[in-house]
Amino acid sequence: MSGPDSASGRGLDWLDATGPHADVVLSTRVRLARNLQGCAFVSQAGEAGRLAVLSRIEEAAARAPLLEGAAMLRMPAVPERQRRILHERRLVSQELLGAGGEPLAGTAVIVPAGSTASLMVNEEDHLRLQGLAPGLQLMEAWRRVDGLDEEIGRTVPLAYHNEFGYLTACPTNVGTGLRASALVHLPGLVLTKEIEKVLRGVSQVGLTFRGLYGEGSGVVGNFFQISNQTTLGKSEEDLVDHVARIVDTVIQTELQARQVLMRDARAATEDKVWRAYGLLLHARSLRYEELMSLLSGVRLGVALELLPGPLVRLQNKIMILAQTAHLEDAAGRKLAPEERHAHRAEYVRTALEASAAAGNGEKGGTSGSQP
Amino acid sequence: MSGPDSASGRGLDWLDATGPHADVVLSTRVRLARNLQGCAFVSQAGEAGRLAVLSRIEEAAARAPLLEGAAMLRMPAVPERQRRILHERRLVSQELLGAGGEPLAGTAVIVPAGSTASLMVNEEDHLRLQGLAPGLQLMEAWRRVDGLDEEIGRTVPLAYHNEFGYLTACPTNVGTGLRASALVHLPGLVLTKEIEKVLRGVSQVGLTFRGLYGEGSGVVGNFFQISNQTTLGKSEEDLVDHVARIVDTVIQTELQARQVLMRDARAATEDKVWRAYGLLLHARSLRYEELMSLLSGVRLGVALELLPGPLVRLQNKIMILAQTAHLEDAAGRKLAPEERHAHRAEYVRTALEASAAAGNGEKGGTSGSQP
Predict the structure, then answer these.
(1) What are the tens digits of pLDDT across the range B184-205?
(2) A215, A273, B129, B134: which has the fewest C-beta neighbours closer than 10 Å?
């Protein structure tokens, strides 16, 4: 394993592909919560306890073949902006950044080379393993973390109860400790006002939904994260399969809603998506929330073939790279809010213009239906 | 004089130039209200009376050297869409179109060749002569109608009272019968919230202001028409000069306000004008009110050199040609509202793209200040 410097560029691999059902599903994530046998849970551990846990996990990671070449980052040693970049790439949680942005001693993240996954150490649980994949690939994402889980478990015994399964800091994670989630784009259901009904249905089959990041964040740009609520009473594979099947149903409902839009409101939809594209190409100042809302319009337009571009890959990339820490990293300095909005607009415009110049964008700009 | 067919294309000459102070003043208009001696005012005349007046004015027009080659259009004989086109080109008033769009017998308009002017017959007064010019050219517009007034008056004696001056149907026009107006674009004063104060000042010196067309129409896109309120007690030349001097003051105040914008809110202004341009280039549906508002943003951007184009001439042209009757004329058929908005967007987009391709537009698209 190597140090902080080798982390730059990591965690973006999933952006280079689109994956199955990319017209609705942006990405898939599976995480496992694990704790070391005989060690106090993180909230009770204190600094010495956390450092002891970290040391044992580091040892286990060093022996895990899947983690050959992985970067091990002790959070307090990572510069503040780089920590936020890790968060914006979804490799570490808000919690791991620490209260007030000061990470606790003993917190760390291990980022494997070549695949998009991360192992958070001393987050809510001793170990949180997560795998990310583009599109709807829940089983693939699960297999990735399952392999890591097994290799780590060979070196450090994990807290497991024959009746309950894996023991976790929060009772809601006891059992498999598994949460499988899909980040879905549902503009059709929102515009046809079917979204409430569909989300209610999702809740009734044991799944839950929320905005793009963490609990409590508002839903922006018609992006929803759907995941399982319970982790107990089923095998990991069955849980993943259950989520995959429900997400598949949501995808079908969304695609039907889009057909309704095309049948009943094609002109209005076309106008909406072209305006979103025009604003992204011309705005000189963009807040992240507005960017997400405009990207939602563009994504719908591309999916419905009303817009000639940009490619879904670029849309995904913009969602990640137009966040504050990434913009500050590109600028090489801290940005005041107004500057940040201007840099964001500049980045988005340049990226879209480059894509259009490469033939993935406005080149076919008049391909929409003409009056 | 010639018939209806020769009217197409007329009344657009002023669009081919920009005129003085084109960064603030779109156009200038001077009109004279005149009535024939010994004939009842239009409202009292009845059909026979109106036809008699028309016949005498037609005779006078035929003898006027300035009206050589002019088109004489009897309103009831002009097809409905062409009547609305004349209105959209500001050659005839809403009143001349008649209640319910059915013009009265005896109403007519004479459109001289080669200059932008019109003589309305049997509008509120027997004769309404008006001259239009691009930019701020009140004296030139006045000289144009003054010449016509003199030539007509040689053949038909005009109702004139030694004490009051020209007699008109409405007492507010008695005296010179002259109204001089300038169509001004005041986004700087609107954005710096100085507009109320300035318009109050305009009222205090005997001028009045209103929206783009006629009384009671709302102000759209920060466009205001400033004109004299009284027509009595001064010579025509003095009145025109008075209006010209006040408009000049308004122009200076507007230019100062724009400098304040550039100093205190450059980034926000730049964002605003680029967004307006982006929407005009990409929208698939545009209402006229929104078009005016977006054109206002673009006009400000071009004036402040934040936007590379389009030329003011094209902006003026779009304001006229993107109106309903012109769009229907281009389509060769009546358009339902939704269709009309789509045709408008298509026309605007095509015009702007052609202009940009000719080097008057987006070519220098990144010339705005970069963050």
Answers:
(1) 999 999 999 999 999 999 999 9
(2) A215
Is B328 in the A-facing interface, judged by CB distances under 8 Å? Answer: no
Q: Looking at residue A313, what is its pLDDT?
A: 86
The answer to whether residue A133 neighbours chain B at the CB level (below 8 Å) is: no
Q: Which residue ranges make up each domain of chain B?
A: 4-256, 265-357
Q: Return the half-sphere exposure (C-beta side, CA atoms, 13 A cut-off) of residue B222.
A: 22
Q: Where are the alpha helices (DSSP H) in A265-333?
A: 266-282, 288-303, 312-321, 324-331
Q: Is the pLDDT of residue B6 over 60?
A: no
Does B270 sit within 8 Å of A283, measured CB to CB?
no
A346 vs B283: CB contact, 8 Å cut-off? no
Cα(A202)–Cα(A205) distance, rounded to whole angstroms? 6
Is residue B120 within 8 A of residue B127, CB to CB? The reply is: yes
Of B270, B345, B346, the CB nearest to A284: B270
Q: Is the CB of A85 inside 8 Å of chain B's CB atoms?
A: no
Q: What are the pLDDT digits (tens) for A233-288?
A: 789 999 999 999 999 999 999 999 999 999 999 999 999 999 999 999 999 999 99
Q: pLDDT value at position A371?
A: 36
pLDDT at A360 over 90: no
| Structure confidence at residue A369 (pLDDT) | 36
Percent of chain A with pLDDT over 70: 92
Which of B271, B278, B284 minimises the CB distance to A270?
B284
Query: With contact defined as beta carbons under 8 Å apart, do A120 and A128 qualify?
Result: yes
CATH architecture for segment(s) A4-256: 2-Layer Sandwich (3.30)
**Closest to A297 (Cα-Cα) out of A325, A268, A255, A256:** A268
Of A275, A284, A338, the CB nearest to B282: A275
ipTM: 0.86
Which residues of chain B lie closer than 8 angstroms to A267, CB-CB?
284-285, 338, 342
Q: How many CB atoms lie under 10 A from the CB of residue B84? A: 20
In chain A, residues with a C-beta closer than 8 Å to the C-beta of B368 are 284
- What's the whole-number mean pLDDT along residues A81-93? 93
Residue B53 and residue B40 in contact, taking contact as beta carbons nearer than 8 Å: no
| Beta strand spans in chain B (E) | 25-34, 71-74, 108-111, 117-121, 127-134, 160-161, 165-166, 178-185, 207-210, 223-228
